[in-house]
């Protein structure tokens, strides 16, 4: 599945937003827009993770997704408050933020556990992948404008959570019928594309036309 998204991942690395995050040259306004949209995304995404916990077949996977839902709000929420302060209650999700969260929530509500696992996997995998790559290039994080962001996603514990999410998806795919596997691939691919769109939207400071 990961191999099928190689083009999208190359496109993510090439995004001006991601390059600027890596070398510290990204302007603060675009970063603040991204963090505000991300806070709105995390609230919806945490609900999808909680749904995955509700659908999970065993205690280990219930605990994994329930902790991921918790971390999406608490751990990443702390990063947000450090970086941009509390998100204003009146902040409105952008079209892309709305589309991505609505998409994962629609999978949560209309499809099964295997498809939902595939839909939430890029959120872990893309961020661990980008975090690791930016870390390798970043040098001393204390002197880096976006060091705290990079440290959050290059973290070893986060890498382990990503491995666990991949293992769960692999087990589900191995036991699934061909129709379910096809829907898992589609969900994985679409969510990976939404990850690209999310950064691109922040670069463009995307807004609603009306
Ligand atoms: C657009 C967007 N995509 C992925 C993440 C990363 N992320 C969100 S929730 C979660 C699981 C619990 O930590 C992870 C890894 C993000 N912040 N913003």
UniProtKB/TrEMBL annotation:
Superkingdom, natural source: Bacteria
Lineage of source species: Bacteria, Bacillati, Actinomycetota, Actinomycetes, Streptosporangiales
Keyword set, alphabetical order: Hydrolase, Thiamine biosynthesis
Domain Thiaminase-2/PQQC: 16-204
Coiled coil start-end: none
Reactions listed under catalytic activity: 4-amino-5-aminomethyl-2-methylpyrimidine + H2O = 4-amino-5-hydroxymethyl-2-methylpyrimidine + NH4(+); thiamine + H2O = 5-(2-hydroxyethyl)-4-methylthiazole + 4-amino-5-hydroxymethyl-2-methylpyrimidine + H(+)
Main enzyme class: hydrolase
Record InterPro entries: Haem_Oase-like_multi-hlx, Thiaminase-2/PQQC, Thiaminase_II, Thiamine_Salvage_TenA
Family from the record: Belongs to the TenA family.
Protein role: Catalyzes an amino-pyrimidine hydrolysis reaction at the C5' of the pyrimidine moiety of thiamine compounds, a reaction that is part of a thiamine salvage pathway.
Metabolic or biological pathway, per its Swiss-Prot or TrEMBL entry: Cofactor biosynthesis; thiamine diphosphate biosynthesis
EC number of the protein: 3.5.99.2
Record's protein name: Aminopyrimidine aminohydrolase
